[in-house]
Amino acid sequence: MRSNCIPAVGIVEMTPADYADGYAGLSLRYEFAETRFGRILIAASAKGAARLDFIKDDSAALENLRNFFPNAKMLRGGGVHIENALAAFEGASAGPVKLHLKGSAFRLAAWKALLDIPAGKTESYGSIARRLGCPKACRAVGTAIGANPVAYFVPCHRAVPATGALGKYRWGSDIKRAMLDWEKATEQLF
DNA sequence: GGTGGTTTCGTGT
DNA sequence: ACACGAAACCACC
Predict the structure, then answer these.
(1) How far apart are alpha carbons A138 and A161 in whole angstroms?
(2) How far apart are CA A22 and CA A150, in angstroms?
(3) A115 CA – C12 C1', rounded, Å
(4) What per-residue confidence (pLDDT) applies to A190?
(5) Rounded to whole angstroms, how far apart are CA atoms A87 and A129?
(6) Rounded distance between C-alpha atoms, residue A153 and residue A5, angstroms
(7) A136 touches strand B (CB under 7 A)
(8) Fewest CB atoms less than 10 Å from the CB: which of A12, A103, A108, A167?
(9) What is the pLDDT of residue A1?
(10) CB A50 within 8 A of CB A165
(11) A17-43 b/e with 16+ CB inside 10 Å = b?
(12) DSSP letter at A134?
């Protein structure tokens, strides 16, 4: 079994039925929560988590969410994917957090590749590009990974520059470092 | 060990 | 058609 303490089992791709007409066919549950890495806004459909952001201001974050899914139905609270996600942040054993995502084929492949990196481990953008069969596309891989809509469960914090530096992170490099440190510490238990 | 110029490629405009 | 990155590589210092 892969030593990945994040119980994300896979990516379900959104179809036109989900995202046509500004996601009019999508129903989302959303919730705010405090996690060990900071305050989040998470949104999930019945099929999986669709968005997870580290946030500063609740109302601004909710507005961003509505801008991203302009015509989706949104209800606060509830849903197994949100419950499981919050449990996972506590390090508790929880059910799988599936991911329900829309993206280009290249982006989806890049996000899937991240799920192969074990907890506490890192991989360079160039190495990921090679795994995707595009050995020269390291920079495009960086752009694709940076567009990840679900922080932590698509473990984009495990992608780092080949130089050994920490690299950039969409929600702040402090959070990236904290995630990797926590994963390394937790992995001692296994 | 650091800096700068060049290569390279998927996206949004 | 063009410009922009969560990069890598190589030369040079």
Answers:
(1) 10
(2) 19
(3) 39
(4) 46
(5) 32
(6) 10
(7) yes
(8) A12
(9) 36
(10) no
(11) ebbeeebebbebbbbeeebebbebbbb
(12) -
pLDDT block averages, 10 residues each, chain A of length 190:
54 96 97 98 98 97 97 95 94 84 98 96 98 97 98 97 96 96 75
A105 touches strand B (CB under 7 A): yes
Strand residue runs (E) in chain A: 11-13, 27-35, 38-44, 49-54, 73-76, 99-101, 123-124, 159-160
Rounded Cα distance between A50 and A28, Å, is 8
Chain C bases closer than 7 A to any CB of the protein: 4-9
Q: Decide if A3 contacts A53 (C-beta within 8 A).
A: no
